[in-house]
Amino acid sequence: MTVSPTSRIAADLLPEALEPIVRQRVRGAGQAEIENWRPAAQGFSTETYLFDLVGVDDGDDDSVGLVFRRPPERPVLPDFDLRRQYLTMDRLRTSDVPVPTMRWIDAHGTDLGTPYFVMDRIDDTVTVSDMPPYHQAGIFADADAAGRAELWNGCVDVIASLRAVDPVARRLGFLDLRVFGSSAPQRLAGFLRHAVGWASGSTAPRQEFIDALDWLDGHLYEPEYVGLCWGDSRMSNVLYSKEFDVVAALDWEIAYLGDPAGDLAWMLTTDWISSPFPDHARAPGTPSTEETLDRYRRRTGLRLDHMRFAHVTAALLLAVPLLRLNEILDLGDVDLAEICIERLDHVFGDGLV
């Protein structure tokens, strides 16, 4: 198949186009074939497919499980750059942060008309789901109180493990949001103003979002520590063993350099939004907010003095893809981002710090 570098290959034609490429890229795969091509179960931010490469002549196993990722046709995040997430995971591969093994990237779209990368698939794992909410169905809901705490704390410990990552030594400076300000909090606030405006399209952002952005500008601070932030730090982005041990952390599309409080606030915010119970209560056994922050403090030595700022940024960051999905899914009068305004009301009204 001949591919124009400006064309986007239809999803059902990707296996045929990719097969000769993987035969060249994977050792012992000269005669291998792609089988079991299927879309990943969830995720709007990056188009993702799982597949088996069968007939590999390399060692004992003649089949290799791989993952293919490319930019979505209609992005839900501004300035989408597939290379950022690839490099982030690739440069963490020898760290204590568990990530999949990267195979290769075509950052210019030469092979398939769009950028893409391929990484190893990690099998024999479990994870929680976003839909239906994990408090209601799936391994988290089905676990006992101790199991829920183990799943939750495993994600917290991944976030804590980022404290040991040296962004300079790992060559992660490309994640710095320096174009948006002079300090890490100002840069994140500036990026969010840009992102909310982008996601709102031709419609002016709702006043509640503008007020929250203005609040951020009026509450900038000097962070205790600036380091790698995962960005999408939630249990549904963690692969666990069947014994609930952490195996890998996925989805680094919105990784950035900033105050690590942002990752904890994101986990707490997405959990609050996921809960189907009255007042967004958690299922029994789920550690509380204070227990979560205390666990992180013990593992990192950081104080987390500016959690309200982090909670506001998390609500705004989540609003960005939801605002975009409003348009992409054409939901009429339904506003997916309304839940983010409810979260902002909760942050300010209940005095979360």
Automatic annotation (TrEMBL):
InterPro entries: ACAD10_11_N, AGP_Transferase, Aminoglycoside_PTrfase, Kinase-like_dom_sf. SUPFAM superfamilies: Protein kinase-like (PK-like) (SSF56112). Pfam families: APH (PF01636). Residues 37-282 form the Aminoglycoside phosphotransferase domain. This is Phosphotransferase family protein.
